Amino acid sequence: MYLLRDVQKSDLPGLKRLAAVLNTMNLPDNEEALTELIDTSVKSFSGRQPDFSRAGYLMVLEDQDSGALVGTSMVIAQHGTYEAPHVFFEVGEREHYSASIGRHLRHKTLSIGYNYEGPTEIGGLVVDPALRGTEHKPGKQLSYGRFLYIAMHRKRFRDRVLAELMPPLLPDGRSILWEAIGKRFTGLSYQEADRLSRQNKEFIKELFPSAEMYASLLPDRARRVLGVVGPQTRGVQKMLERIGFEYVDHIDPFDGGPHFEADTDDITLVKAFKSAQLSERPLEDSELGGARDMLVGYSRENGRIRFRAVRTPVIFEGRTARITAEAEELLGAPEGTQLGFIPFSEPA
Fold first, then answer.
1. FRET pair for 204, CA 20 to 30 Å: which of 65, 67, 197, 228?
2. Domains of the chain with bracketed CATH
3. Can you point out the beta strands (E) in the chain?
């Protein structure tokens, strides 16, 4: 069984091992960056961040058999503030017609945009490659856990949720779009710009062209990746669409990846959220056939446990819920504690 929980400072070695294998933008192989992510998350989960717009919640998935960290996911309470706006390309279309030659053309356009009171963002989804597609679905647990936490603490988050999906990249990790636009206007590599933008977005506003750009002027391979999801992210796209997200004609100005958004309260997992008290009677093996497959969360701001979630069979009995003894032990929740629930699998 896997335990999804809030990251701790003691998790740095495990995160470094995972980052060394993957070295993604979501989980950089950089101790300073990882330490900053952990510090922000610990402060946010503990309730010591009074300004929710600055909160970020990093979750880790722990394999209970090996004790190893096998994945991460993240929720950023507000992506886009006055100090660090949310930056995007708005994808539009221009029509041109010449009567003298009878030619009608449509051109895709890109316009830089900024959001200073941005949406909540889900991101940071990283799964150990050896576990992708396995029957226990660790990636799905990591992804769904973010929506469980949002539903359990709804007032901390915005009324819109954003997901920025990765497009196809070059074999060496460079962005095709960045090579065509960003590098030309900033003189920075994709990795340098991404690293810098985490602390400073001023250079984008000052160096990127403010005028509308015609995508027709880009190289063919750059045009082909605009708003396209990369092969390793297509499963995430299908999941997001299934729970209520839609492409909003915005793309990332660094790599051209599409932006999907949804109204928070219309996300199916948030709508299906329910809470119930933990029953004093755990589920017996003979009862599992009639139980529901759910992700169950326990959250508090003080003490050792701040957020934990497990996938477990559940039977609801009035205002109480019964889960397996193993799930109870991993959650560490005493009897009578209020737990949060979202469906993990659709009913048969």
1. 228
2. 1-74+130-158 (3.40.630), 80-117+163-270 (no CATH), 272-343 (2.40.40.20)
3. 2-6, 56-63, 69-76, 86-98, 103-115, 120-127, 160-164, 213-214, 246-251, 258-263, 274-278, 292-299, 307-317, 320-323, 338-343
